[in-house]
Automatic annotation (TrEMBL):
Residues 271-284 have a biased composition (Basic and acidic residues). The keyword Isomerase applies. Belongs to the pseudouridine synthase RsuA family. It holds the Pfam family S4. It catalyses: a uridine in RNA = a pseudouridine in RNA. Residues 324-334 have a biased composition (Basic residues). This is Pseudouridine synthase. Residues 271-334 are annotated as: Disordered. Keywords: Isomerase, RNA-binding. It comes from Teichococcus vastitatis.
Length: 334
């Protein structure tokens, strides 16, 4: 069995697979890049690429449809407030306006992280790294997509709660969905809907299954990234440090695995504590923690005034006690 370290070193010497290289360059997702290769649209140093297993080195020249492709830039991520009426695609057969037609000038070539329907609006993530886009779309990330939905019809809150168990609509199985009623006025209502799968038109189809017609759908969050107060039609780059922290781009795989194990251990511990707290015999009377005793007179003198102040008077200004000099009992004769 080959050593993974040796394999990675060999890959580094040969370069990067061309489909991944094109994805990082923002040309297309890795899957679409493979389609371009199959169509004979990709050339390396003037020769048509015949297989996605071709490697690209630092000095190689790559063209797509005879147009040169620059080396991949640093990974960048953008938040975009998509208005309704735009298609999330680069080219639409029906010649409708697309998200990318409406972006301001000066941005690199971007691809979307997932899609929003024609009439849906709200947060859409855009990146110049096609490989990153594919990674963020994977259901295995279990990133919560949160929506606000305006619906028409009779809202059955019990039926909404049942969605947490998952539901099958017209032969399509959908995972757990958290849905709750925010407000209601007549036959119109606002719901908050959270899910992790994000299948095609999932929110609309599931709510239609409950007899509700979605009249407006706004995505307000995608994982740790939120719409916030971003104006409609505006685009804003995500802070590079925040992006790296959320996506783990700076951490080596072994560190990420350690973080995942720690997170899983924390979840297990939290679950155990919750079960213990639910048992009456596990309830214990809490006592205020006592300050540590000074080990000697010197340490007692070195303590700052108020360092061990507790109770109702703990917020008093630091300084000598107001009780200093107050008599604690009758003075002894003599």
């Amino acid at each position: 069995m080959s050593d993974p370290v040796e394999e990675s070193e060999g890959t580094a010497e040969r370069g990067e697979r061309i489909a991944k290289w094109l994805a990082r360059a923002g040309i297309a997702s890795r899957r679409d890049a493979e389609k371009l290769i199959a169509e004979g649209a990709v050339a390396l140093n003037g020769r048509v690429v015949e297989t996605p297993a071709t490697f690209v080195g630092p000095e190689d020249r790559v063209t797509v449809n005879k147009k040169p492709v620059g080396a991949p830039e640093r990974t960048r991520l953008f938040r975009y407030h998509k208005p309704p009426g735009l298609v999330t695609t680069h080219k639409d057969p029906e010649q409708r306006r697309t998200v990318f037609d409406e972006l301001p000038e000066g941005l690199p070539r971007l691809v979307s992280v997932g899609r929003l329907d024609l009439n849906s609006e709200g947060l859409l993530l855009l990146t110049n790294d096609g490989a990153l886009s594919r990674k963020l779309e994977l259901p295995d990330n279990e990133w919560v997509r949160r929506y606000r939905a305006r619906v028409h019809g009779r809202v059955d809150e019990r039926a909404l709660a049942e969605l947490a168990r998952g539901v099958t609509v017209e032969g399509v199985a959908y995972g757990p969905i958290e849905a709750g009623l925010d407000s209601r006025q007549g036959t119109n209502a606002w719901l908050t809907v959270s899910l992790t799968e994000g299948k095609n038109r999932e929110v609309r189809r599931v709510l239609q299954h409950l007899g509700l017609t979605v009249t407006r759908l706004i995505r307000v969050a995608y994982g740790p990234f939120t719409l916030g107060t971003l104006p409609r039609g505006a685009v804003e780059e995500v802070n590079a440090k925040f992006m790296r922290e959320q996506l783990g781009l700076d951490a080596p795989p072994r560190i990420l695995r350690g973080v995942e194990r720690a997170a899983e251990a924390a979840r297990v511990t939290a679950a155990d504590e919750a079960r213990a707290a639910a048992k009456p015999e596990a309830v214990q009377r809490s006592r205020p923690a006592k300050p540590p005793r000074a080990r000697n007179a010197t340490e007692k003198l070195r303590r700052p005034w108020g360092a061990v102040a507790q109770g109702p008077d703990a917020d008093q200004p630091e300084g000598p006690s107001r009780d200093r000099g107050r008599r604690r009992g009758p003075r002894k004769p003599g």
